[in-house]
Specification:
By secondary structure, the protein is mostly helical. It contains four helices and no strands.
């Protein structure tokens, strides 16, 4: 359950980063160069600066999304979160050899393991 909470918090953080990038994009669109202000050196500098900030923010969000997606997939695989849940019927239909093999591979939930 802690992993799911951690993943949710990461998604919330990514949403916040995306919102910040969107705000920078809006600011860059507002400050965009037009025919009227193309001769103003200060406005050109501000506009270029905002577009670079916007690009960096978007690239950063993209990198964080890719990294988070990869990390979460690895964690889910390592913890067996995406594997189908075994039912009692599945366990009962296994031979002892199959059961022992799956226990060694940590693929049997604790509640189904033999008590020695």
């Amino acid at each position: 359950m802690d992993v799911l909470i951690k993943h949710c918090n990461q998604i919330i953080k990514l949403d916040e980063m995306q919102g910040e990038a969107r705000s920078l994009f809006d600011a860059a669109m507002t400050a965009k160069l037009t025919v009227d202000n193309a001769a103003d050196e200060q406005k050109i500098k501000i506009s270029k600066g905002l577009w670079w900030q916007c690009k960096i923010a978007i690239d950063t969000v993209k990198d964080h999304v890719t990294t988070s997606k990869l990390k979460q997939a690895i964690e889910r695989t390592a913890l067996g979160m995406d594997e189908p849940e075994l039912s009692a019927h599945d366990i009962e239909s296994m031979t002892d050899a199959e059961f022992d093999y799956m226990v060694k591979k940590n693929q049997i939930p604790m509640r189904f393991r033999k008590i020695a």
